[in-house]
Amino acid sequence: MQHKTIACFIFLFTILFNTHKSSAQVPAGTNVDESKVKPYTLPDPLQMQDGKKVTNVNDWNNIQRPYIYHLFEENVYGRIPRIKLTQTFRVRETGDAIGGLATRKQIRIYLSTADTSAFIDLLLYLPKSKTKAPVFVGYNFNGNQTVQADPAIFISENPLRDSRLKNADGTASDSTRGIASNSWDVKNIIKNGIGLVTAYYGDIEVDTKDGWQTGIRTKLKDELKIQPAEWSAISAWAWGLMRIMDYLEQDSNIDAKHVALFGHSRLGKTALWTGATDQRFAMVISNESGEGGAALARRNYGETIKDLNERFPHWFVGKYRTYNNNASAMPVDQHMLLSLIAPRPLYVASAEDDQWSDPKGEFLSAVNAASVYALFGKKGLGTDKMPPLNTSVGNTIRYHERTGKHAVTEFDWQQYIKFVNEQFK
Fold first, then answer.
1. How confident is the model at residue 164 (pLDDT cuts 50, 70, 90)?
2. Does the keyword Hydrolase apply (predicted)?
3. Separation in Å, CA 312 to CA 232, 308, 327
């Protein structure tokens, strides 16, 4: 019986973190040969429409930044509605956790008074060592119950994308408790005086091609005055993170001025777009976000725009498909998305065995965002050479490529914890 339990755990763990392809799974025809990368020219984030270059923060904030942001809205992610709905917050449960080091809080955010089925369930771990703590905030892939094997954590009520993890009604199986704990280094986060806030991204919209039909893009379209096709799943998930930030600002145990937004894989793409949209997030961390995230689209390496649109058409707005075979025709590239985070601290991370996500393309994107950070007197990576493996480099922008596959590891969290403690001191 014990062997069956272990085998089941390994099976579920494999499902949970195979959220993107690793280098071993790269489809035939995909370029993973650096010598075959074709020459490309990146748009200059400081080049304005009138041909002049941005030379000061005022012109960046008032002219160029809004212009670049609009290009991403129109061509990549769709627009995010800014109508303020009436939200309510309900404390569902509190208790001691992590061996008494933390307080566990479970909060339900009702996103609208008109539809109580539109909600986000938060799981918070706050260190008892601080009365007002900085926090990491980020989505999880399959429900809060996967983050820790704690029977007090409520199981997600919204459907999961993967049928192998769910009950007949689509909700999460009890066997999923704690299966993602290796990717959430909760104890070390807490020991370093930082809190953790997480929620299941399927509370906003289930990650399937037709998830919009039952998610907020349909439920709240009349209240938000936006049609489902005007925005994407990534923008919907970003909108949800902004609603989480609304809650964090009124929780007296959280230092809302020091919130580090974290995301892995598709949720790393989401974190970057959210951070570009909502400057209340004081730091953004992209863990292996790849194409459509931190990686340069104009590099024909690893996953492409066409790959994304064929496999995950719901992630992006319709116009993004027009660049399937011509990334260079797109008026933006992903270094410009990173530049929208300036002057806030930004961490971009890659993995050696995740060539599908193009580690070098992620690194070069961070390199080319530095010119905007320089406007604010902030230093970028300080190098244009790929660093050795398992080495963190940079200043206000930071980067590492570690050994291993597409995942979130203890090494990653060590760097992010250090970055938070340095930048938020």
1. confident
2. yes
3. 11, 5, 17
Whole-number Å distance between alpha carbons of 284 and 273 = 10
Show the tokens assigned to 225.
């005055």
Q: What share of the chain in percent tops pLDDT 90?
A: 90
- Answer whether residue 137 is part of any domain: yes
Task: Order across the sheet with 133-140: list the strands.
Answer: 88-97, 102-110, 119-127, 195-200, 133-140, 254-264, 283-287, 346-351, 397-402, 393-394
Structural domain includes residue 26 = no
181 catalytic? Reply is: no
DSSP label at residue 387: P
Q: Write phi, then psi, for 201 (nearest 5 degrees).
A: -65, -20
SS3 sequence, 311-344? HCHHHCCHHHHHHCCCHHHCCCCHHHHHHCCCCC
Residues 70-105: b if buried by 16+ CB within 10 A, e if exposed: ebbbebbbbbbbeeebebeeeeeeeeebbeeebbbb
Set 265, 339, 357, 392: catalytic member: 265
258 is catalytic: no
Q: For residues 253 and 7, what is the distance between their CA atoms, to the nearest angstrom?
A: 40
Q: Are strands 195-200 and 393-394 parallel, antiparallel or unpaired?
A: unpaired
Max Cα distance, the chain (Å): 70
Picking from 168, 320, 197, 325, the residue whose alpha carbon sits closest to that of residue 262 is 197
Q: What is the pLDDT of residues 170-228, one digit of tens each?
A: 889 999 999 999 999 999 999 999 999 999 999 999 999 999 999 999 999 999 999 99
Residue 62 forms part of a structural domain: yes
C-beta of residue 346 within 8 angstroms of C-beta of residue 398: yes
Domain count, the chain: 1
**Residue 4 main-chain phi, psi, to 5 deg:** -65, -40
**Residue from 376, 397, 372, 284 nearest 384 by CA:** 397
Task: Please state the three-class secondary structure of 176-233 as a single string.
Answer: HCCCCHHHCCHHHHHHCCCEEEEEEHHHCCCCCCCHHHCCHHHHCHHHHCCCHHHECH
Provide the 3-class DSSP secondary structure of residue 350.
Answer: strand
- What's 77's DSSP letter? I
Alpha helix positions (H), 73-200: 186-191
Whole-number CA gyration radius for the chain: 20
Task: Specify if 30 maps to a domain.
Answer: no
